[in-house]
Amino acid sequence: MPWLQVRLAISPEQAETYEDALLEVGAVSVTFMDAEDQPIFEPDLNTTPLWSHTHLLALFEADTDAAAVFAHLQLLTDAPLPEHQAEVIEDQDWERSWMDNFQPMRFGQRLWIVPSWHAAPEPDAVNLLLDPGLAFGTGTHPTTALCLEWLDGQDLKDAQVLDFGCGSGILAIAALLLGAREAVGTDIDVQALEASRDNAGRNGIADEQFALYLPEYMPAMQADVLVANILAGPLVSLAPQLSTLVRPGGLLALSGILAEQGEEVAAAYAKDFDLDPITVRDGWVRISGRRR
Asked: Is the model more confident about 161 or about 137?
């Protein structure tokens, strides 16, 4: 069925007021959307930042009177309305639309990420079956792509791989499919560990090949390969710990790092690793090297 969509151009300071007012006048959903493609990268702890120019979208039943909605909003907020508009939009199969937009992706020479509902473009390639999750990593972000391409370029035969901040498990699973002997994944989010286990099962990875731990329960180890796609701040503060988790001669790949943060992160690891030139893509970087 069709819906009436109301759009308000607001500032972050107006967000709570207008969200409450829209729900008060009968909106069935309220969504915040970036009005100017402005990125927000590493928010402060316990904050949910909004873009400086935000659009607030609200859906109402199709027979709702838009003029009445705007009049009630003005009464509830006791202020002139910000820039606003209303339009009727047709309903659609949102799940089908979303699935159609997620296509197989190739990383490096051998590796493909393939959604479960799509045939593998190259059946004889290394095909990792992965359905998009909530926010745990699917290969679409440059940082994940940088790590996947790096893994594809390594000789992982019989290697033990540690995926620090494993999220969906995509990096560890890719390493196993590319020849690693075993992988260990750790994450502070229990749901991420569950997603990793589900994705491993989808790809025929046995539990004993891919051990998963909360950080406080992770056993002492020195991996042949460590990958960490998290954030620059934790990568810097955890550098002493992460360095000791790689055996001498072992490999390291780090991402989740903005280009302007690359030198700081690299400096934190330069004492223990012979680092490769920093690789940049779309404003993000990958730092890799070999443990001395």
From this structure: 161
Q: Check pLDDT > 80 for residue 36.
A: no
User: DSSP character for 116?
Assistant: T
**In this structure, are residues 16 and 76 in contact, taking their beta carbons and an 8 Å threshold?**
no
- Which sign does the torsion angle of CA 66, 72, 73, 78 carry? positive
pLDDT tens-digit series, residues 107-130: 999 999 898 778 899 999 999 988
* Helix (H) / strand (E) containing 286: strand 284-291
What lies within 8 Å, CB to CB, of 27 at 6+ separation is: 6, 58, 59, 60
Q: Domains in the chain and their CATH numbers? A: 3-91 (3.30.70.120), 101-291 (3.40.50.150)
Q: State which amino acid sits at residue 36.
A: E
Element (H, E) at 92: none
**CA-based nearest residue to 224, from 150, 274, 163:** 163
**Could you give the CA distance from residue 3 to residue 91 in angstroms, rounded to a whole number?**
7
For residue 144, give the nearest of 166, 124, 121, 161 by alpha carbon.
166
DSSP letter at 16?
Answer: H
Residue 183, SS3 per DSSP? strand
Cβ distance 225 to 156 under 8 Å? Answer: yes
* Sole residue written with tokens 């909530």: 134
Give me 104's structure tokens.
């197989």
